[in-house]
Amino acid sequence: VDVERAKTDPANSIVARIKAGCVATRMELSPKGDRLYVTARADDALVVLDTSKFLTDPEHAKIATVPVGKSPTGVSLMDGGKKLIVTNIGTPEEQQSLTVIDAAKVTSGAAAVIGTIPVGSGPRDATLTKDGKTLFVPNYDSRTLRLIDLARLRMDPAK
In whole angstroms, how far apart are CA 34 and each of 24, 37, 52, 88? Predict the structure, then answer.
């Protein structure tokens, strides 16, 4: 969106449209701003976009798709942007989890998944504390807040 044009001509302020998966839900920008990570809820995936192509080649901005758990919603950077956390809200019958992804390997698809962390019911987001030591995960359905000490993080390995 051209912000200046939007002030006077909102209907004509869109400069590019980027395909970001089915039911794009949340997004997170990499520390360098070169990648945009988008959860595609209906695709059960994290979509990775190259921001340098947004204006020059929007049809080819999608550079990777990483399969995650059921109905991914939130996405958060961890370890200075070296890892990503995706929240998977799933269904009550399924295990709801966080998927941990190696940001350097996202173009490898499923091989980028490091592992999963089981959480409460309905994890919508994951927020890292400023010191990078604790991850807060609110669980909507179970009405709980999970605090994960990243120094003692244990996860199920990727399958």
Answer: 19, 10, 6, 25
- What pLDDT shows up at residue 93? 60
Measured distance CA(34)–CA(103) in Å, rounded: 12
- And the tokens for 38? 């988008």
What pLDDT, on the 0 to 100 scale, is given for residue 145?
87
CB atoms within 10 A of CB 152: 6
Which pair of tokens denotes residue 156?
A: 């199920």
* pTM of this structure: 0.88
Angle at 86 between CA 125 and CA 134, to 5 degrees: 60
- Please give the pLDDT value at position 4: 94
* Burial call 63-83: b when 16+ CB within 10 Å, e when fewer: ebbbebbebbbbbbbbeebeb
pLDDT at 48: 98
Residue 119 banded pLDDT, cuts 50, 70, 90: confident
